[in-house]
Amino acid sequence: MGLFNATQTDPATVARDYAPVLIEGERVLIAFKTIRDLVFLTNYRLCTVNVQGLTGRKVEIESIPYKSITRWSIERAGTFDMDADLTVWVSGAEQPLEVKVSASANIVGVQQVLAHHILGGGR
């Protein structure tokens, strides 16, 4: 799944909207959304939300535990590049997950969340 032209959004709103899929003690740390789709990182996993169909009633939520992420990269927006990039490789997946976020988004914050939970084993 690729998510393009995403903007940073309020983690508290995402936590409220997706409370049924969160487990006890799970917190949304950072989130990005497009008009319909969403990517958010919690203290346990990375989740993608893919809204499908014309009505948007069909929704796919994919959970990727941090232990399944084998590597990641971030690229900050440049002078002529209007978005920042996050690429995440997941074990068993042929293609990486790609997220393009607005230049104003906290892409370094994403790097910190991933590093803390993958390398540091933090919760």
Identify the notable features of this structure and list them briefly.
123 residues, alpha+beta, PH-domain like, 8-stranded mixed β-sheet, 16% helix, globular
Order of helices and strands: EHEEEEEEEH
Straight-line N-to-C gap: 26 Å
Number of domains: 1
Strand order of the largest sheet: 5-4-3-2-1-8-7-6
- Give the fraction of residues assigned to helices: 10-25%
Enumerate how many helices there are, as a single number: 2
Which CATH C-level class is it? Mainly Beta
Beta-strand content bin: over 45%
CATH level-four homologous superfamily name:
Bacterial Pleckstrin homology domain
Q: So what's the overall shape?
A: globular
CATH topology: PH-domain like
Q: Runs with pLDDT <50, length 5+?
A: none
Give a written overview of the molecule:
The radius of gyration is 14 Å and the shape is globular. By secondary structure, the chain is α+β, with helices and mostly antiparallel strands. It has one domain (about 1-120): Bacterial Pleckstrin homology domain (PH-domain like, Roll). The protein has an eight-stranded mixed sheet with strand order 5-4-3-2-1-8-7-6, with helices on both faces. The longest helix is centred in the C-terminal third of the chain and has 13 residues, at about 105-120. The mean pLDDT is about 90. The protein has helices at about 10-15, 105-120; strands at about 1-10, 30-35, 40, 45-50, 60-65, 70-75, 85-90, 95-100.
